Amino acid sequence: MGIAEHPPQGSIVTVDYTKGFRKPEMVKVRLAVVLSPKIANRPNLCTVVPLSMTEPDPKMPYNRSLDVPFQLPPSWGNQTRWICGDMVNAVAFHRIDLLRMGKDIRGTRIYQMQQLPPDLFKAVRTCALHGLGMSGLTKHL
Fold first, then answer.
1. Is-contact 1 16, C-beta < 8 A?
2. Is the pTM of this model over 0.90?
């Protein structure tokens, strides 16, 4: 697991939360949306918003359902996910992996590199702002 360069904003990656995290933090490998662009003088770090398959109860302003509009690897399925805007974090590249879609006829790995459309990425950013206690900034998105 691990990537060499910053994935694009709005792309979906897997993040390994199994080492160094404890409940109530995320504690397993899960899908996450890349929130940050590449930032100078911040090498090998990426800010992400995790996604969950469990519908929150109660739903809060930092939660929203998200139907990923492109194909995910079969191991992840294509069911509705929930944005966990209260669990935003910066993770090192060694925790992040791109979505592996299989291999082409030459045996080269194929990665899902599509980004969320602007309206869905805005929803992710809105949830993140609510989760950080900065809901007043959502009017600027």
1. yes
2. yes
